[in-house]
Design goal:
This protein has 611 residues and is an alpha/beta fold. It is built from 24 helices and 23 strands. The strands form five sheets. A six-stranded parallel sheet has the order 5-4-6-7-9-8, with helices on both faces. The structure holds thiamine diphosphate and magnesium ion (MG).
Length: 611
């Protein structure tokens, strides 16, 4: 057929993916930086055949765990500020469902990733094929239906020509700033291998540009008026600031108007840490300066934030105050009764700056925030000073921060570290702080670090991870060695789930099933993490304290390959300064007096919040 090319669906799909382009800082690049792949019968013949020989246009990377490779893909997209992404192909069954947790992670964090799990035969010829689940009530269900609630767009490809519409729709979702999130195209195993005459025009290269919609004039005017009449306004910067690349305009606006800025986990780094208007982190893991400002504020302006419970202190930190939300997505903007300004963060802040050209905050508000930051800086010095025999997380953070350098990126996700990092990490540049705290998924850290490194190989990547998260998923450490993508991992071994152990006691519980010593055991594990990391091909050492850690970090910097530094830490200590209440429901009845007391506190808190 003239004007057509006969290809298998997998060949057409991979060829099409390679044609999607973006412009990043004036340079044209492929939108898909590569394909993560673990093959099985569900994709090796179809997708495997198509990918082999495409190394230049769409490189394939072999991983060790599907969840891990998906974490790497997602971290790549986050570090690329959603301008680029990666795809992931798996077999059917367990290979596919191993990615469901990662899909949820991308969904919560609004990050683009293309999942291509293999699926059962469209023809149903060999049913039940190896690894096929059988639903006797619904013949159309497969294991991949697990992806539906955690995908922004889900489709099952049961005919080769369906990709002609499905792929552009997938790209539209991946590149739309409001819809952005994971896309799953479940590829029926037989369809991957089936040929079709695709129109040649389907494979024409296409450049995708980020949409930056301006705000509605009336909504913008309402915000301008709100700020002009406010005495003590506060901006909360969320991840949307970074995805909109609005940090420059935010920084200028804050400096000129004097409006202080607090940051969420995803928004941290929007301002350089010592910007005169930077208050640091807000909320449950907030600085005393940011949280005091939130309490004193008469107007809160959220910019690109989901208002997750850690940001709002479970809706108690600035409850009842006037709240205006700038957000690209109306359902985010409208949260908690906010007045909405739907639009791109950068465009909106620019328009705002223009409208407020002659306006600035009262000197007293500036001075109050300046003093609060000075007080917080003293608390920072106290928390990070290396004094304890067995170091705290904060002291380790201080050491890593001193050694990492201005260009480094710190990566983390779960455990006690994200809270401590949110409070204490002093970010030098946007992108220097990469903490996945939307899903806070244990096991993101090492694989995520690899993805961050792949997004920007020139930067040093410091993965900070607890023993629990490391044990949950570490196998992409071997991938980082194999691919020559060096990451430095600082593994804080407090012998268990330290933060949950503290939370358990904070809710009246006895230490139970969190620290290794409090869990059922015949032998108390004494895990040699350095030996484990070495067995995966990384360089590794265990250090005896903060001074040794700093020396090891210097060695790590010189190492050509991934480097793991293990340090024993105290599971009991966290930074007391700053912080805010967090809603964790305590049992209403219990034989334990400590639980009863915690419940009384909890009820007082909730009742307090209502009045
Ligand atoms: C996949 C997953 N399972 C469970 C949890 C709940 N959880 C959050 S932190 C944590 C313990 C983490 O332990 P570790 O990495 O050693 O950090 P530490 O708390 O000791 O600082 C657990 C179980 C989670 N966030 N993610
Ligand atoms: Mg631990």
């Amino acid at each position: 057929m003239s004007g057509h090319v006969r290809l298998t669906m997998a060949q057409a799909l991979t060829r099409w993916l390679a044609m999607q382009r973006v412009e990043v800082d004036g340079v044209e690049l492929p939108y898909f930086a590569g394909m993560w792949a673990i093959f099985g019968h569900g994709n090796v013949a179809g997708m495997g055949e198509a990918l082999a020989g495409m190394e230049d246009a769409l490189p394939t990377y072999r991983a060790h765990n599907e969840q891990g490779m998906a974490h790497a893909a997602i971290a790549f997209a986050k570090a690329s500020r959603r301008r680029r992404a990666m795809a992931c192909t798996t077999s059917i069954g367990p290979g596919a469902t191993n990615m469901v947790t990662a899909a949820a992670l991308a969904h919560v964090n609004r990050l683009p990733v293309l999942f291509l799990p293999g699926d059962v035969y469209a023809s149903r010829r060999p049913d039940p094929v190896l690894q096929q689940i059988e639903d006797f009530a619904d013949g159309a269900v497969s294991a991949n239906d697990c992806f539906r609630p955690v995908s922004r767009y889900f489709d099952r490809i049961t005919r080769p020509e369906q990709i002609i519409d499905a792929l552009p729709r997938a790209m539209a979702v991946l590149t739309d700033p409001a819809l952005c999130g994971p896309v799953t195209l479940a590829l029926c195993q037989d369809m991957q291998a089936e040929a079709y005459d695709y129109p040649e025009g389907f494979f024409a290269p296409r450049i995708w540009r980020s949409r930056r919609p301006r705000p509605d004039r009336a909504e913008l005017n309402n915000l301008v008026e709100a700020i002009r009449t406010a005495k003590t306004p506060l901006i909360i910067a969320g991840g949307g600031v970074l995805y909109s690349e609005a940090e420059g305009v935010l920084s200028d606006l804050a400096a000129r108007t004097g409006i202080p800025v607090a940051e969420t986990q995803a928004g941290k780094g929007a301002l350089v840490w010592d910007h005169p208007q930077a208050l640091g982190s807000i909320g449950v893991t907030g600085t005393s300066a940011a949280n005091a400002a939130a309490e004193a504020a008469d107007l809160i302006v959220g910019v690109g934030t989901r208002l997750q419970d850690f940001t709002t202190g479970s809706r108690t930190l600035f409850a009842g105050k006037r709240l205006v939300q700038i957000n690209i997505a109306a359902p985010d903007a409208i949260k908690q009764g906010a007045e909405t300004v739907v639009g791109d963060a950068g465009e909106t802040l620019e328009a705002l700056a223009e409208a407020l050209a002659d306006w600035q905050v009262d000197d007293r508000w500036r001075a109050a925030n300046r003093d609060a930051v000075a007080e917080w800086n003293a608390a920072w010095d106290a928390a990070t000073a290396p004094v304890n025999a067995l170091p705290s997380d904060a002291q380790v953070i201080g050491a890593v921060w001193r050694q990492a350098g201005d260009d480094a990126t710190v990566v983390c996700a779960a455990g006690g570290l994200p809270g401590e990092l949110h409070k204490l990490w002093r970010t030098h540049r946007p992108g220097g702080y990469h903490v996945e705290y939307g899903f806070s998924c244990m096991g993101y850290e090492v694989a995520g670090g690899l993805g961050v490194k792949m997004a920007d190989p020139a930067r040093d990547v410091y993965v900070m991870v607890g023993d629990g998260s490391y044990l949950m998923l570490n196998s992409e450490l071997a991938t980082s060695v194999m691919l020559g993508r060096k990451i430095t991992v600082i593994l804080l071994d407090n012998r268990g789930y330290g933060c949950i152990n503290r939370l358990q006691q904070g809710t009246g519980g006895r230490p139970f099933n969190n620290l290794l010593a409090d869990a059922a055991h015949e032998i108390l594990p004494d895990i040699d993490f350095a030996a484990h990391a070495r067995s995966l091909g990384a360089a590794a050492e265990k250090v005896g304290g903060i001074a040794e850690l700093e020396a090891a970090l210097v060695r790590a910097k010189q190492s050509p390959k991934s480097y793991v530094i293990v340090i024993d830490t105290d599971p009991a200590i966290t930074t007391e300064a700053g912080g805010h209440w967090w809603d964790v429901a305590v049992p209403e009845v219990s034989a334990r007096a400590e639980v009863q007391a915690a419940r009384r506190d909890y009820e007082n808190r909730i009742d307090g919040g209502r009045t």
